Amino acid sequence: MSIVGHLSALWREMSRRGMRWVLAHRILARHPTLICDPTAIWDYAYDQIDSIIIGRRVSVGAFAEVVVYRHSPYSSVEGRLILGDAAVISTGVNVRAAGGEIRVGAGTAIGQNSILIAANHQIVSAVSYLYSRWNEERCGVEIGDNVWVGASCVLLPGSRIGDNAVIGAGSVVTGTVPAGELWAGVPARRVKVLQKAHDVV
Known about the structure:
The protein is α/β, with parallel strands linked by helices. The chain is 14% helix and 30% strand. It has one helix at 3-30, and strands at residues 35-36, 41-44, 52-54, 59-60, 65-69, 80-83, 88-89, 94-98, 101-104, 109-110, 115-117, 141-143, 148-149, 154-155, 160-161, 166-167, 172-173, 176-177, 181-184, 189-193.
């Protein structure tokens, strides 16, 4: 590779890192009570920072990736992210709020390496899956207050989780989880009804 090739690659990498730093800095400046590890990645359109609403004392862990795009060429549904007061996004969590809204309630914790997906591609005959339109009828993820989502869970578009619910580690949520219930498995199913918010499971 020539010196020009090396310099070009270096410039691209430095530009990418610089933009990530700017986007993260803007989030921290706008939300002074946010506790965010410096390795967390914030990816959003520069002029659409108002699509990200963050409450007080929210925590975002190391290597989390938060992607929020209000507009997408694959969907007419707007993307948005809302994190309630004292919500916790743990290490390695991947949040993809494009083509739908992701809402995480107050006091809710999303366990390590979990994935929240607001929209997914439709499977259409004779169309490349990667470039097909996103499903606009089943989109968004809504998680209530005081919810515990265990490590390595996947919350697919259309997931709705009620207040005080618990999702067991490694579960895949595809629909509605009523308030105050413990669900687990692939796909997640009800394990038991919690008597109160402070039950130990």
